[in-house]
Amino acid sequence: MELTDQEITRRDNLAKIRALGVDPFPAATFPVTHLASEILALVEEDSEGKVTNLQDVTLAGRIMSQRIMGKAAFANLQDSSGRIQLYVSRDDIAPGENKSLYNDLFKKYLDLGDFIGVKGFVFKTRTGEISVHVKEFTFLGKSLRPLPSPKKDEAGNVHDEFKDPELRYRMRYVDLTVNPKVKEVFRKRSKLITAMRQFLDDLDLMEVETPVLQAIHGGASARPFKTHHNTLDVPMYLRIANELYLKRLIIGGFDGVYEFAKIFRNEGMDRTHNPEFTMVEFYVAYKDYNWMMDTCEQLLEHSVRAINGQAQTTVEVDGKTIDFKGPYRRLTMADAIREYTGEDISEADETELRAIAGRLDVHVDKTMGRGKLIDELFGERVEAQLIQPTFITDYPVEMSPLTKKHRSKEGLVERFELIVNGKELANAYSELNDPIDQRARFEEQLQLAQRGDDEAMAMDEDFLRALEYGMPPTAGIGIGIDRLVMLLTGQKSIQEVLFFPQMKPER
């Protein structure tokens, strides 16, 4: 392991700290009373500008800058909420004859990025900056690598910023430290999930957990990750969906269930796709896709208000204002293709669809059946044009092997997708509960697999057996959490809303 000069210096400082009898990695609890942002927000002053409250505070965090002035020093401390200035005097933190706590530890061996704890009182400097006058100082953790340190040249240009995306995603721990605004994206993500969970709980749905390792990769059309169970000596798959297990619970007698689930699909990576992603799926007995559209509108409006404030249902994305207040536009897939391309696919067979694809310059291949062809036409020529929340409804039966056939439109199913800013955000059905029809749909998927479609669904005999015991009419939906967070935080890349996105191995 080759060390830089700075890393060698930090290790030397580590040894010197130990030589002073100070543990550089103490295990003791440090009782924090305030965060930096709380101190800045709570300060009260008298008529002379003196701080009248918060006389005693205890806080902890990283040292991000130091300015030593002999027997006193200023430093910036950063905690999870932000930064605050510290004023440190030698005679305060090292009273008596032994001044090594200040002269050696604080002045010489303390490096930027080290963790410390301080106790003191809040005051205002002559320049008007709220600061903490430190009375006690505790060393809490040594940083053996230097943090990136941006610098400005004489022309005002900034150098050495930690902005390279690959480095930021690979070393998120550094990104969060030196680019603290990144934390706000993840705070909003957490707040979103909390708001959605509250909404679903208020619907009296039960949160559940289903298997990540599955013997059959069912519930969606996607390529799975394959692994092996050594004890059972059988192949297993990371789930591409949790749908079939949630339906088993409806069959078992629960009226409504939901799960925030990690899903794994062995597919491409780009700005809107990561092989590991998060979805919330919920299923409610005795409901259909019309009820689910209404509920989806209410859920998303509730969630956006929870993040942005109760009065605001809009977000700004790429210079566009997107409004999540319902009702949303509802458009059948055939009508959407007709409106945006001028082509009528409602009665077209596979041959005619290939001809339409040729006219629209949409690439298709021989493995695609009628459903995949229609999906490709919609994805290439329509989806990107749907900016405001839009429900695309009534899909061809070939595209939806788990969906109930439309009650009045031959050849279609009761399904919708919610499209926002040109991307799918949610997918929902009136769930297929006829086991004979479901078996036939699975068999059609097997035929597609034989034609070379590696995303075709597998036959799931246990799920068919469960359906044969009877499932009530049910509505189900899956909502992509990562894409929703992207929209609500104005991020253009899914990697920006994942703490640890998938990366190529580091060389």
UniProtKB/TrEMBL annotation:
Pfam family, one: tRNA_anti-codon
SUPFAM superfamilies xref list: Class II aaRS and biotin synthetases (SSF55681), Nucleic acid-binding proteins (SSF50249)
Catalytic activity annotation: tRNA(Lys) + L-lysine + ATP = L-lysyl-tRNA(Lys) + AMP + diphosphate
Required cofactor(s): Mg(2+)
Annotated Aminoacyl-transfer RNA synthetases class-II family profile domain residues: 186-501
Broad class of the protein's primary localization: cytoplasm
GO molecular function: lysine-tRNA ligase activity
UniProt superkingdom: Bacteria
Binding site for Mg(2+) 2: 424
EC number(s) per entry: 6.1.1.6
Co-factor: note: Binds 3 Mg(2+) ions per subunit.
Sequence positions that bind Mg(2+) 1: 417, 424
Keywords for the protein's UniProt record, in alphabetical order: Aminoacyl-tRNA synthetase, ATP-binding, Cytoplasm, Ligase, Magnesium, Metal-binding, Nucleotide-binding, Protein biosynthesis
Family: Belongs to the class-II aminoacyl-tRNA synthetase family.
UniProt subunit comment: Homodimer.
HAMAP family, sorted: Lys_tRNA_synth_class2
PANTHER family: LYSINE--TRNA LIGASE, CHLOROPLASTIC_MITOCHONDRIAL, LYSYL-TRNA SYNTHETASE
Protein known as: Lysine--tRNA ligase
Source organism of the structure: Neolewinella maritima
